[in-house]
Amino acid sequence: MTQLQDHARARYATAGSANFSIMLAVLAVVVILSNIGASKGVVIGPIIGDFSIITDGGFFLFPLAYIIGDVISEVYGFKAARLGIIVTFVLSVFASLAYAVIIALPGFDDDFGLAKQEALELALGPVPLIVLASLLGFVVGQTLNSLVLVRMKSRFGERSMVARLIASTGVGEFADTLIFCAIAASVIGITDFPTFLNYLFFGFVYKTLVEVLLLPVTTAAIRWVKRREPSYAAA
């Protein structure tokens, strides 16, 4: 097979290696921590005059989920990415149920115990709604992200990796951010439409911009994993 033919076809590694397992674990942890952080509204600014950026406490974590999802989709294919989405979904639901049980358990009735209970309720109480918003956004966004990336790879093979990473990120992040913000806005205290648009716009722009800026890291990670997956070279 010529080098041109080799680059014209899509190749994937077998999703049974330690590399895939580690990425799957990190993906789940990042999403679960993002769900907790997202229950806190964050105001950055004012930047110009009275204008401030509205976001949430998970803003610095969640782009990592899409970067990991891109690596999994590019190296292991759509079935592996779908497995990652399902596993992360189940573990996030489990974490949310665990929070509910922890809050419901009877605690000490002294001042310190009551203060701890109130802090837990305030910190973890909104999480089920945040988890719903995050999971719906994550499932739709990551699925679209993976589908766009895999479809483009099927067409272009190993070529144009940066183009498919950018295209898949734009589609996936917009769907994810729209669904998440629509559900989570009221939980973190956003009640008017202009503030919601601020939250939606800057959430999408920030996440997409982070992934674009980190493309050199993402592509380097993809190439590193590809070189260390014998089944990828043999595909």
UniProtKB/TrEMBL annotation:
Keywords attached to this entry: Cell membrane, Membrane, Transmembrane, Transmembrane helix, Transport
Residue ranges crossing the lipid bilayer per the database entry: 12-36, 80-107, 127-150, 162-190, 196-222
Localization: Cell membrane
Pfam families with a match to the protein in the record: Vut_1
Membrane topology: Multi-pass membrane protein
Protein family membership: Belongs to the vitamin uptake transporter (VUT/ECF) (TC 2.A.88) family. Q precursor transporter subfamily.
NCBIfam families per record: queuosine precursor transporter
Function of the protein: Involved in the import of queuosine (Q) precursors, required for Q precursor salvage.
PANTHER family with a match to the protein in the record: QUEUOSINE PRECURSOR TRANSPORTER-RELATED
Official protein name in the record: Probable queuosine precursor transporter
The species this protein was found in: Arthrobacter parietis
Lineage of producing organism: Bacteria, Bacillati, Actinomycetota, Actinomycetes, Micrococcales
